[in-house]
């Protein structure tokens, strides 16, 4: 029996929902809360208390005996947001109950007993199939005990704590072989295998599937490491192949006959050449993205054989994530950026940006920090690490593609690495949100730094923006060594805009010492601007309304008077 205790109207409403769904499993304890909890604790195997954890801890503390016999206790907060497994997680079934209650009430189950961890810390984000004694090995990783790491394939893994990688009886093994996990061993199955498939028209799915499975089995390979099936475009809709991919739970990729013809294969033949225009489908499709041919073309056992397949182990590809951290505030860092920071084993970035997110990194992350100015070197380092097969994250403030590291890095990068871009809130947008709505119509960003761009180019662009009446945000507006560029740029804009044109100046947007000011083209003192600042100059339609900078969405009224 599950005893239900609540103290408030909201709690009672949630309690009644449980009682309605589980009429035979629950008993409602009314009356003074302390008394209700004591009675329920004595009479029930489990309790759900719609009370703060603090209150419940105080009430049950004197009642606790031993974890084999105490009831499991779950607390649900008043807002119904969390179902906390408080005591008796395993023996008392509170973990399971928290999940069930969470499901029913739409509350997140909160389970803190570590052996319930579903993945090896660090490796739980990969989305790889995992086999073996995950609970024991996770425990060992968490407890800082030595854990052996056996990488049969090099694969871009996240950072692992320093206790992982020492000889030990607990073991993490990355393999695509069809082996069974030993005791205290976890097998990670990277998506390393590609199966090329050819099939005659209407080849039955059982035949295609049987062929793939026996090819993998005979070669001692695990179907759990299958990344994709590959074939020729003409067979993209071949029902047997499509259904085989579906049943295996992997995507089907296809290539043109022309692309496949260009692949060097050991067993070309005339039959596919006549049928689909390439001397090889299975081998060529499997090999097209490179890799090692583990199983050359083989035919199904049926007479006549209607399917062929070949198996390739892909070369591991390094991973370069180019991540924008946003303007500074932690809550303007996107969840995706956070996930990428935790997905990496190597981090490359400017020291001041590393400081911004250091606490989010996994222990064991290798930091390659450098000071201002070393952009090219940082870009090269990041790419070189990724090409070694590492999972690298290259960070930049705001958006990493805006006056930042993405372009130098991608100019260096070859197509043998995967590149993942994560957008960030760039300074112009962070500043605009503070100022009001200055970017409501067409706008440009112009960097006033002439360190890498000749001033003539910058000036030409400022002039074009001035003539086109476009709202302008200046990045890198002014530094100690560069003080005449901003006044010059403002003067160009002033040639086409009134001195009363609104100008927003935002310094350290979203950081602890954020400040902003709304002034005018005529009133702005450039000396008050520095490198931590962006300056947004309105166009002829921009207005100051109730202390905010607003550029109307349309200005048809200007183009068409009346
Ligand atoms: N990648 C960054 C821009 C790098 S250029 C981004 O997308 O925001 C550096 C310039 O950006 C600075 O000189 C300043 O003009 C501007 N900047 C960056 N962060 C800022 C912030 N939090 N507040 C105001 N300006 C900022």
């Amino acid at each position: 029996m599950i005893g239900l205790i609540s103290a408030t109207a909201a709690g009672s409403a949630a309690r009644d929902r449980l009682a309605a769904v589980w009429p035979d499993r629950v008993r409602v304890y009314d009356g003074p809360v302390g008394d209700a909890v004591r009675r329920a604790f004595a009479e029930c195997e489990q309790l759900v208390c719609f009370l703060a954890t603090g209150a419940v801890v105080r009430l049950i503390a004197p009642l606790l005996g031993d974890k084999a016999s105490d009831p499991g206790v779950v607390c649900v907060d008043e807002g119904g947001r969390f179902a906390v497994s408080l005591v008796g997680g395993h023996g008392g079934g509170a973990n399971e109950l928290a999940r069930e209650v969470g499901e029913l009430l739409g509350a997140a189950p909160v389970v803190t007993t570590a052996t319930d961890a579903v993945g090896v810390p660090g490796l739980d984000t990969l989305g790889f199939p995992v086999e073996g004694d995950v609970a024991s090995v996770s425990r060992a990783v968490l407890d800082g005990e030595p854990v052996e790491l056996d990488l049969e394939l090099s694969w871009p893994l996240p950072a692992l704590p320093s206790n992982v990688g020492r000889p030990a009886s607990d073991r993490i093994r990355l393999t695509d072989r069809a082996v069974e996990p030993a005791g205290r061993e976890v097998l990670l199955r990277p998506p390393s295998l590609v199966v090329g498939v050819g099939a005659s028209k209407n080849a039955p799915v059982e035949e295609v599937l049987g062929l793939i499975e026996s090819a993998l089995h005979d070669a001692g390979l695990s179907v759990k490491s299958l990344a994709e099936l590959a074939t020729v475009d003409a067979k993209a809709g071949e029902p047997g192949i499509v259904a085989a991919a579906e049943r295996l739970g992997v995507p089907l990729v296809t290539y043109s006959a022309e692309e496949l013809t260009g692949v060097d294969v050991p067993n070309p033949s005339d039959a596919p050449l006549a049928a689909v225009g390439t001397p090889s489908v299975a081998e060529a499709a499997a090999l097209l993205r490179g890799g090692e041919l583990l199983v050359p073309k083989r035919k199904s056992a049926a007479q006549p054989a209607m399917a062929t397949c070949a198996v390739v182990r892909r070369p591991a590809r390094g991973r370069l994530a180019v991540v924008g951290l946003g303007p500074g505030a932690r809550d303007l860092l996107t969840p995706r950026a956070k996930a990428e920071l935790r997905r990496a084993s190597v981090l490359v970035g400017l020291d001041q940006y590393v400081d911004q997110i250091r606490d989010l990194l996994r222990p064991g992350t290798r930091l390659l920090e450098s000071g201002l100015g070393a952009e090219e070197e940082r870009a090269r380092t990041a790419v070189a690490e990724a090409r070694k097969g590492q999972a690298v994250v290259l960070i930049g403030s705001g958006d990493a593609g805006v006056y930042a590291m993405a372009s130098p890095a991608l100019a260096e990068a070859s197509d043998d690495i995967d590149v993942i871009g994560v957008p960030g809130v760039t300074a112009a947008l962070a500043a605009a949100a503070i100022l009001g709505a200055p970017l409501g119509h067409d706008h440009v960003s112009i960097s006033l730094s002439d360190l890498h761009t000749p001033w003539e180019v910058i000036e030409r662009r400022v002039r074009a923006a001035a003539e086109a009446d476009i709202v302008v945000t200046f990045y890198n507006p002014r530094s100690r060594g560069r003080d005449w560029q901003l006044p010059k740029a403002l003067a160009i804009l002033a040639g086409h805009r009134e001195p009363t044109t609104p100008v927003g100046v935002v310094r350290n947007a979203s950081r602890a010492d954020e400040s902003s000011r709304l002034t005018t083209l005529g009133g702005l003192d450039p000396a008050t601007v520095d490198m931590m600042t962006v300056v947004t100059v309105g166009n002829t339609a921009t207005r100051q309304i109730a202390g905010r900078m607003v550029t109307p969405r349309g200005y048809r009224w200007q183009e068409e008077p009346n």
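The chain has five domains: 2-112, 123-188, 196-211+229-313, 319-425, 428-550. The radius of gyration is 31 Å.
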